[in-house]
Amino acid sequence: MSTPSPQAIAPGLSRRLAAFVRNSQWRDVPEPVREHALRALYNGFGTALGGSSDQAILRLAASLAPFSAGEAATVIGHDTRRDAPTAAFLNAASMNVFDFDDTHQGTIIHPTAPVAPVVLALAEAQPVSGTALLHAFVLGVEVTCRIGNAISPGHYNRGWHITSTCGIFGATAAAAKLLDLSQEEILWAFGNASAQASGLVETLGFMAKSVGVGTAARGGLLAALMAQGGVEGPPMPLEGPRGFLKVLCDAPQPELIERGLGSDWENLRNMFKPYPCGVVLNPVIDACLKLRRKPDFSADLVSDITVRGCPLLKARADRPDVTTGREAQVSAQHAVAVALLRGTSGAADFSDAAVSDPDVKALRAKVRPIETDEAIPVEAAYVSVHCSDGSRFEMSEQAATGSPARPMTDAALSEKFAALAHYGCPAINAGALAERLWALRDASDVGSIMALARPGA
Amino acid sequence: MSTPSPQAIAPGLSRRLAAFVRNSQWRDVPEPVREHALRALYNGFGTALGGSSDQAILRLAASLAPFSAGEAATVIGHDTRRDAPTAAFLNAASMNVFDFDDTHQGTIIHPTAPVAPVVLALAEAQPVSGTALLHAFVLGVEVTCRIGNAISPGHYNRGWHITSTCGIFGATAAAAKLLDLSQEEILWAFGNASAQASGLVETLGFMAKSVGVGTAARGGLLAALMAQGGVEGPPMPLEGPRGFLKVLCDAPQPELIERGLGSDWENLRNMFKPYPCGVVLNPVIDACLKLRRKPDFSADLVSDITVRGCPLLKARADRPDVTTGREAQVSAQHAVAVALLRGTSGAADFSDAAVSDPDVKALRAKVRPIETDEAIPVEAAYVSVHCSDGSRFEMSEQAATGSPARPMTDAALSEKFAALAHYGCPAINAGALAERLWALRDASDVGSIMALARPGA
């Protein structure tokens, strides 16, 4: 039963956000935003290649295969194409399955995963230029992160998987832009998205997480297509008294959605991860990799290891006993062990096989419970190693790779892409694909690039 | 990032609920529950026929058509079949589009809409007997309503469309039972459902509501199929610290999910609606229909109308100005006008056409703002009519049709079914279909009945 109330917050917010998406022109998007969005798309494509052969993705792909009509869209890293909604689902899940995709500062949203797969799928249904695709992608990321800002930090803290819950609105906005929907249709599309917004933190660490992320991409695409087909939504899906913001957050700040909209771009606060694990581990891994490069260090001699960092590091990642690669992604003990033992911190180092490697297990057991200091920022960490010969090594990291103070370079992103392609999908020509993606802004038909992401094509 | 916490409420609840679904035998379901479930299924089938040609359903069907693989499952009232998830989506939306489907006492969940379409779709993929189908349906309704009990009334009051949010778990349970999933797989399926649970009250009164209800059915079916395909979920999707109950409710009572489970059946608290509008209007309409049957009453002479009822009646349905059939469903003024003018209160009386009928408009304008009395229960109402010739009519209803004290009879359900079929889908043989549905428990292959719900078959 409908129960409207006059106490709406900021009436018209949803409508104005729809107008922003409708009216935005490519010339309105500053050059640094365009460049950064291309990096995000490139990075996300790489993490999708890396995740494409993960068991979660293979099982989801098999489960959805009987319900895909035709082969219009590429599933990154797979031979067989699927229909656009199914491909969007699977590519979003692949991009995010290792949590190795981008992270929006402040909200910890992974904005590319729900948004990029939608524009890529639509680009195989109709010719779409590289700039048109990037423009829609920029708007989708912007909508996702701004809605996230309005409900952070309460929303995630309550237990919402913010990548999925906010991502569906970005996926909707991006699809709506490429489909050239009217302002009213975009508003309806937001309403259709609001009816599907979901995702729980409780599922993280399990394959069910990918169900939420995939549903955000697929649901966003369908929300826009339904609006195009005349499926009408409410006028205030975000700010209404029983709309998204109030229902999914105890103390929303709706005004943050519009503050600086179109001038201060959230796209630029989107960071890329050097390691496939929780961002709190980045400085710890940086310090361990530097320490291992010391000429007189030998992992064989290590007797015990102390890690000191911010309180969040302990809260999220003090996990000595791990049994799966998923769990290892949030285990400081595991991250320290592989970095010191192998000198690497890639997808293979957070696999089930790495977790059960006897040498890794032995070293993991030597990492003491995490020590914390409130004065240490989240980008910093200290590692101290005692050895059986009495020697001692100390190393610290003050600004972790991937942090705002030290973002990943394009060269580092290229290395990450190549490593992920090799890990998840060695059968494709990753070099050729990477080249076409870096040149995306010159492409007249993005769809033609997608064949390079299929091993059999 | 995963952030497990030791403070889980009732650990093992989700697992035990999965065990209940897994271990339940048809012989464990008491005869009154079986009979009542058959009524619910029959009633829901009728409301789906009535809703099948509504604009919302036609537009959703057209939007989803390109993404349906094959024609395995019947869309009730439509010529063309769709794949099982798409048919489940559309049939759930049809059943609920007029809010004319069943209502679970206490939670106001419409439990049949998300659940029945899933078992009906599966029954066309493999031979399913009438009793196997009813058994899965009973379990789906039970799971839906019990999860609803645990989060009522706070969940709905916060703005959650409880039919959608809880319905997906019932859809999952019903599908899991028919697919013969193991206990562990059912637990995973609940996790996959938890990642998709959604639906906002803000969308009620708009087509976007049906997006939420359809998604619940489709998502529940897929949650079970994914679990069958090995997509693993968390161990405590319901009761975990960031699980469904705590995240979607401020003060959940998880113990209500298990209290009386298997002995005190929520299925029996599922009521059927005589009129296609908010249940608070039932006693008002009853009183008006009785009043109109008085030999000396003439609607032409009415000068003003007073309605007195419970506070909820005013809160939900004091709506003198309506412009659409959807709004009219929660307008006491409209319901009174059509009942007094036409002597009917069916789907056609809550259509856009009825809303703009000049005679209805004129009479609607004569209904004063609703008067309330806290002593009046929700099942009762008083109507008082003054006429221009000085005459006055009074009528009250103490136990509305469809209330627990006066449930709809099987004969009344049959009349409702026939009227809805005639309204929404006159081309089918509704009599033959009704007969087969009443005899469902003797059916060896329910799928064969579905052809009768397609005009072209």
* Helical fraction of chain A: 40-55%
Task: Sum up the overall morphology of chain A in one term.
Answer: globular
| CATH fold call of the largest domain in chain A | 2-methylcitrate dehydratase PrpD
Low-confidence stretches of chain A: 1-10
Largest interface: A-B, 81 and 80 residues
Please report the distance between the alpha carbons of the first and last residues of chain A.
51 Å
The main β sheet of chain A shows up as: 4 strands, mixed
The CATH architecture category of the largest domain in chain A equals: Orthogonal Bundle
> In terms of quaternary structure, what is this?
homodimer
Strand content of chain A: 5-15%
Protein name (chains A, B): MmgE/PrpD family protein
Family (chains A, B): Belongs to the PrpD family.
Organism (chains A, B): Mesorhizobium vachelliae
Domain MmgE/PrpD N-terminal (chains A, B): 15-255
